[in-house]
Amino acid sequence: QKEVEQDPGPLSVPEGAIVSLNCTYSNSAFQYFMWYRQYSRKGPELLMYTYSSGNKEDGRFTAQVDKSSKYISLFIRDSQPSDSATYLCATNGGGTSYGKLTFGQGTILTVHP
Amino acid sequence: NAGVMQNPRHLVRRRGQEARLRCSPMKGHSHVYWYRQLPEEGLKFMVYLQKENIIDESGMPKERFSAEFPKEGPSILRIQQVVRGDSAAYFCASSLRNGEGTEAFFGQGTRLTVV
Questions:
Q1: Using an 8 Å Cβ cutoff, are B70 and B86 in contact?
Q2: What is the pLDDT of residues A67-80, one digit of tens each?
């Protein structure tokens, strides 16, 4: 069983739709959760960083963490064609290496006009 | 304010040659992480370095791979005697510190092709 599971999609939605991206994790030691966006042949770009259960909002993006069920989500409101990318959830366990991240496989999102 | 800089962006090596990948962290960042992204797979952690020290190399293959982050200059990921299975995108990330709230920022990657 992978430590972080993410549905690879692909996911295709019309412009303006609300997108829901999800991951589950298995290790209770994971404390911090991130969402990265990766455009084709580019490096991952940090979108959201959370460390407690609940919601965190930033513009059109909302990250949600439920530690009791080990479930993390990213919601994108009013999706745009420019949101078309691969979205990666990531987590770390703290300890001595906070930048040592465990990633999900990534979900490929296409927003069509 | 330049981000994480990696070079070269693309590297082609023949089987048995050496590959050297360079990473200059963001200004002021002293923590560097290397990740590998194989086709159809997610990003996998390889190694975490601070200046002149390897902190965590739990994701590094036991043979042929090495990494350094000298006092001066970029971090280097070295792959000796490359094989076809080493073909992948290698990403470097850097962070300002190592603690709660640490955010890691990634470079654009080096795409290694072994022919």
A1: no
A2: 999 999 999 999 99
- Chain A hits for B42, CB-CB cut-off 8 Å, are 6, 88, 103-106
> Who among B45, B56, B107 is closest to A43 (CB)?
B107
Using the CB atoms, write b or e for B33-69: b if 16+ within 10 Å. Answer: bbbbbeeeebbebbbbbeeeeebbbebbeeeebebbb
- Token readout for B64 is 């042929």
A7: tokens are 């549905």
Alpha-carbon dihedral of residues B54, B59, B63, B64, nearest 10 degrees?
-70
pLDDT digits (tens, 9 = 90+) for B26-77: 999 999 999 999 877 789 999 999 998 999 999 999 999 999 999 999 999 9
B100 reaches A (C-beta below 8 A) = yes
Contact of A5 with A23, CB cutoff 8 Å: yes
Q: Which two tokens stand for residue B86?
A: 């080493």
Nearest to B38 by CA among B112, B88, B109: B88
